[in-house]
Design goal:
This protein has three helices and four strands, in the order E-E-E-H-E-H-H. The model has no long low-confidence stretch (mean pLDDT about 90). The radius of gyration is 13 Å and the shape is globular. Helix 1 crosses helix 2 (about 70-85). The two termini are about 20 Å apart. By secondary structure, it is of the alpha+beta class. It has one domain (about 5-95): Ribosomal Protein S5, domain 2. It has a four-stranded mixed sheet, with helices on one face. One of its GO terms (molecular function) is lyase activity. One of its GO terms (cellular component) is cytoplasm. Oligomer with a subunit composition of (alpha,beta,gamma)6. Keywords: Cytoplasm, Lyase, Phosphoprotein.
């Protein structure tokens, strides 16, 4: 999947995460994380984002994540939603996506 435009999913409410995806002019994935629980869970949050992007076959993107204590399933859902918005793809198979586990 190719990221064609900037897209956002999520909020900065408690127990949520706001994921912003921006096209990256260089190859690779860059993750910027702002989290109230970064010291305890920063590695796991980054891993869930990275793994979700890998499942979507995204190889080049800048990610800005503002976390307010989201669970892994919320992080994954917000990343998927932002990715589809940023790619411009209009159809997706939520049944297939729901079987993914990160």
């Amino acid at each position: 999947m190719e990221i064609k435009q900037t897209a956002i999913a999520g909020t900065v409410e408690s127990s949520d995460i706001m994921i912003t995806l921006v096209p990256n002019e260089t190859q690779g994935i860059e993750i910027s994380l702002d989290s109230s629980v970064e010291k305890q869970f920063g590695k796991q949050i980054r891993k869930v984002i990275q793994d979700t992007l890998a499942l979507l076959k995204i190889e080049s993107v800048k990610v800005v994540a503002v976390d307010k204590g989201a669970l892994d399933c919320t992080i994954q859902a917000r990343t998927i939603a932002a990715a589809y918005r940023a790619s411009g793809e209009e159809s997706y198979d939520w049944k297939e996506i729901s079987t993914w586990s990160v």
